[in-house]
Design a protein that fits this description.
The structure is a single chain. By secondary structure, the protein is of the alpha/beta class. The chain contains six helices and 16 strands.
Length: about 280
C-alpha cells in the first residue's frame, strides 16, 4: 500500500485544566491533519496532567470513556477524517486508570489502561490496567497502545506485535532519568518486533517535575525517522508503510541468512516469564 503519514505532538499540559488541554489537542490535531497526517499522537495524561498528589485531587480531572473529552476530540476527528491517540485519566466507578484512547471518524475505537505503574505522579494512586493487550485499526494501520513505563517491559510490545500491530504508540511523560529510554529502548522495541514505534513525550514542568521531550518515531529496522531535540513544544512527522511492518520474514541472503522475529520465537522456553511473583515494590500494596 502507499505510505501513511503520522504525527507526534510534543506539548506542554496544564495540570487539572481539562478544557484547556482538550482545546489544545483539537487545535494541534487540525494543524497536523492540514500537514497531511492521518494519525496524530499526543502525550500521556494530555487531557488531565500527571502530577496529582492524591486520587481525590485527580478525580475531578478524570472522565469516563466515552465522555466529554473523547466526544470533543472524536468530533474533530470526524470533521477532519483523521485519527488521534491521546492520554487521559479514565473514571470507571470508584476506580481511576491511566489510559490512552484511539479516536477516529467513527468515535472511540479503542482504549488502553496502563499495565505497569511506576511510583510517580498519579500512577502512585491509579488502578493497574485490567484489560488484555489489543490491536485496533485506524484506517489501514493496525495500532497497539502502551503508555510510558510499559516500554520498559518488552513483553508488552511483543504481545502487541503478536496480535498484529503495524505501529505501537507510546504516549509518555518521561522525566529526567528516562534519557536512555528515549535514546535506546524505543529503537530496541521497534527492531525486536519489526514494527513502527512512536513515543510522544510532554514538555514543561509540573509541580517541580520537568519533562525531557525527546519524542521520536522509529521504523521496523530500528532506524530513527524523526526525533525532537528541544525541551520545548514540537511536532514530529514521518511516513510509514504497514506492508514493511507486516513482512516479518527478512531475507538478507536467500537461503543463507533469513530471520523471522515472530516465527523464530520459542515460547515453550519462556514459562518463567509468566510465573506469578511475590516481589513488592515500596509504597504500593
Amino acid at each position: 500500500m502507499s505510505t501513511y503519514k503520522i504525527a507526534g505532538v510534543q506539548m506542554d499540559v496544564r495540570l487539572a485544566d481539562v478544557n484547556s488541554n482538550v482545546s489544545q489537542i483539537c487545535e494541534k490535531l487540525r494543524e497536523t491533519t492540514a500537514a497531511g497526517a492521518r494519525l496524530t499522537v499526543f502525550p500521556e495524561c494530555a487531557v488531565s496532567g500527571y502530577c496529582f498528589s492524591s486520587l481525590e485531587e485527580a478525580r475531578p480531572s478524570a472522565q469516563p470513556i466515552p465522555g466529554p473529552a473523547t466526544t470533543a476530540i472524536s468530533d474533530v476527528c470526524r470533521e477532519l477524517q483523521s485519527y488521534c491517540v491521546f492520554g487521559m485519566l479514565e473514571l470507571d466507578g470508584d476506580r481511576i486508570f491511566n489510559a490512552a484512547v484511539l479516536t477516529g471518524p467513527e468515535g472511540v475505537i479503542g482504549r488502553y489502561r496502563k499495565v505497569h505503574l511506576p511510583f510517580l505522579g498519579i500512577d502512585m494512586f491509579t488502578t493497574y490496567g485490567d484489560q488484555p493487550f489489543a490491536v485496533q485499526a485506524a484506517g489501514p494501520i493496525n495500532i497497539g497502545m502502551n503508555i510510558c513505563y510499559d516500554a520498559a517491559f518488552p513483553e508488552a510490545a511483543r504481545s502487541l506485535a503478536i496480535l498484529g500491530a503495524d505501529l505501537i504508540v507510546l504516549p509518555t511523560n518521561w522525566p529526567p532519568g528516562a534519557e536512555n529510554t528515549a535514546a535506546h529502548v524505543i529503537n530496541a522495541r521497534a527492531i525486536e518486533n519489526g514494527v513502527y514505534y512512536i513515543a510522544v513525550n510532554r514538555v514543561g514542568t509540573e509541580r517541580g517535575f520537568p519533562f525531557i521531550g525527546r519524542s521520536k518515531i522509529v521504523d521496523p529496522v530500528g532506524k530513527t525517522l524523526a526525533e525532537s531535540h528541544t525541551l520545548g513544544e514540537d511536532i514530529l512527522y514521518a511516513e510509514i508503510n504497514p506492508d514493511v511492518a507486516r513482512n516479518k520474514h527478512v531475507i538478507r541472503v536467500p537461503g543463507k541468512h533469513e530471520i523471522d522475529r515472530l516465527a523464530d520465537r520459542r515460547p515453550e522456553m519462556y514459562a518463567t516469564l509468566v510465573q506469578p511473583h511475590e516481589l513488592k515494590r515500596p509504597g504500593r500494596t
